[in-house]
């Protein structure tokens, strides 16, 4: 039996799509970029500023939250949206990816993955059923099936084993999700690494299980962009057109634009906040490294045409000084500047798709990026 | 010749005063608390939030700024207010205090203090004349004379030597200030440690030199609160009633309330932001340590009666989680919660003085603090 559909496709332009996804905590305009609030907080940003920057939906990491403060505690406090004060749509991952990257002594079995917490060393078991339970306790609007993600490059046999396990875990995740509150959603995840045949198999199997939406996982894990885009092209035709499509862990503004042209609707990435903490801004002129001494005496803002006040009004000289001095405000300003740029880009892309003008927008945006930063004074 | 007076005394209540100090960048309502933006930034707070929290004037540290990005660079960029985007009144210290506490190989001479920069080891000389020049380059609304501050307890001979040197440096500072832009101000600093006779001598000498306003320095440097308040009582009668009085580096909300009752008008302290970074909130219920496990499951805010949104709407459980997880947002929220509490306290005190009701306000405020935090659930 197919699951109810909360996605409305509003317009397409060549391969690109724009739509509305309705969640219990509000509507998400797609294409959508989801900033990552790992442990219940955005790094260096107030939730109020995240919303002002044009964010519809944020991502919370199940692995971090189940260990601290624990899912049960968050449930008792009314769920993640109320706990954090964000009060908007929230997608949670399954926890599987961070188990692989952060925990010690992990062991993947058919039933579950067992690991030791990176916080206190406690032994923890995470099964597909427990992952769904944790995500329900967190109050997730969109839960993800548990999967196994293989870092590339990898042997085909390893990729296939993880992909098949992910299909079985997807079925168990869907069964476990049957008692979930009305309006909440479960997304399946297509795996298969960089092997087209495995991607096809995974896509068909995942769609056969049936989910509210479909994610492509196992990309942006070390492969070139061309491989990533090729894999999207292999998978997209197998996904139902009326369901949302989420490309996990991606990416740069360029990655997003290229993926949207290939039919993807949702994205998450730590890049805007992480690069911000490292002194790098995403702008209309491409990436700008504020550590560079060329900015030390430059009174000009990053982009005088931006509608985000910090981008338009803060001098490069001040940002350079903050970054060089290690002042927290530097990371705070660059994180919000980057999130605002991402969200403005998403809004512009949605508008362009609605008007059937994405091709033109694509050309001018890429030309701006390739032209690079304004010349030094 | 006495300097022009930009201070207007509006009301007094017993020893306490409320007034308006007009600077080139705007009016400061007194009693005023000045948050400390050490190196051109508040730690963990956007300037916009500092203003929203009720801040009229901020403090910049000459020592930090002269070393990086340098006063000349800030001057070329239009001054500290424009550089930071704060655009409001700014007081700068002389740099002398931080030379003593932060630099290496410092040597105090009659002409100047020489030291090595804590940033790059460069040898730097700071004289009263250079300090005034640096503060003018920074675009300071209120500059401070250079002085020497002695940490307590200290030998009387050491306190006296530093006090006499500060008097001579005060005269040189005033001469150097003669060419300063109209409307900007220079405050003298009364030294003398915990020795009443030296405080009297210093106060009379400083007033004889003549400044726009008068500061009491060399307190909050290790002595008990009773000693600090006693020294204020020794000095205040020697200061002209029509000039603003600034107690440097103070303090807790209780220190501020007690000092205001003894006639002080202006204060600066890193305590609200520093304690915020360490997980401690200043509230109507006194200081609250959010690290304490009693808050882990507590959905209540720090103070449901506060008019500052983060204080009224953020749960103790969330703050506890952020602090325990080392999330930057914890320090950011507690810094703004603390600054907002300080500024609200200043506003309430100004209102109470205006109405002649400071005595009653003092009793109820102290009773709230002494009652302590609300009971655990």
Write up what this structure looks like:
- The structure is a homodimer of 377-residue chains.
- The first copy, chain A, is an alpha/beta fold and 377 residues long.
- In chain A, 42% of the residues lie in helices and 19% in strands.
- In chain A, α13 packs across α14.
- The radius of gyration of chain A is 20 Å and the shape is globular.
- The model of chain A has no long low-confidence stretch (mean pLDDT 96).
- Chain A binds chain B through residues 39-46, 68-69, 73, 76-78, 83-85, 296-297, 299, 313-315, 317-318, 320-322, 324-325, 327-333, and chain B through 39-46, 68-69, 73, 76-78, 83-85, 296-297, 299, 313-315, 317-318, 320-322, 324-325, 327-333.
């Amino acid at each position: 039996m197919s699951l109810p559909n909360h996605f409305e496709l509003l317009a397409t332009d060549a391969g690109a799509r724009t739509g509305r996804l309705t969640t219990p905590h509000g509507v998400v305009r797609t294409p959508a970029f989801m900033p990552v609030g790992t442990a219940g907080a955005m790094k260096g940003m107030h939730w109020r500023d995240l919303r002002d920057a044009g964010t519809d939906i944020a991502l919370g990491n199940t692995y971090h939250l189940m260990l601290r403060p624990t899912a049960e505690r968050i449930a008792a406090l009314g769920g993640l949206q109320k706990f954090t004060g964000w009060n908007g749509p929230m997608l949670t991952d399954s926890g599987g990816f961070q188990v692989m990257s952060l925990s010690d002594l992990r062991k993947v079995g058919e039933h579950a993955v067992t690991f030791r917490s990176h916080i206190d060393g406690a032994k923890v078991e995470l099964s597909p059923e427990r992952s769904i339970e944790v995500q329900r306790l967190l109050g997730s609007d969109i839960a993800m099936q548990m999967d196994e993600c293989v870092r590339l490059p990898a042997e085909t046999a390893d990729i296939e084993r993880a992909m098949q396990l992910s299909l079985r875990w997807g079925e168990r995740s869907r069964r476990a999700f049957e008692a979930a509150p009305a309006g909440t959603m479960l997304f399946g995840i297509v795996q298969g690494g960089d092997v087209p045949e495995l991607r096809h198999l995974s896509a068909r199997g995942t769609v056969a299980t049936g989910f509210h939406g479909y994610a492509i996982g196992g990309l942006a894990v070390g492969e070139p962009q061309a491989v990533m885009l090729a894999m999207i092209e292999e998978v997209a035709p197998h996904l139902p057109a009326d369901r949302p499509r989420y490309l996990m862990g991606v990416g740069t503004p360029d990655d997003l634009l290229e993926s949207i042209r290939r039919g993807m609707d949702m994205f998450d990435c730590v890049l805007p906040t992480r690069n911000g903490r490292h002194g790098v801004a995403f702008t209309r002129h491409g990436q700008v490294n504020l550590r560079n001494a060329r900015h030390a005496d430059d009174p000009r803002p990053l982009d005088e045409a931006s509608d985000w006040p910090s981008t338009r009004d803060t001098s490069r000289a001040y940002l350079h000084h903050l970054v060089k001095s290690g002042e927290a405000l530097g990371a705070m300003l660059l994180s919000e500047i980057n999130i605002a740029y991402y969200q403005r880009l998403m809004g512009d892309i949605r508008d362009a798709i609605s008007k059937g003008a994405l091709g033109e927008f694509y050309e001018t945006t890429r030309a701006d990026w390739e032209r690079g930063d304004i010349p030094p004074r």
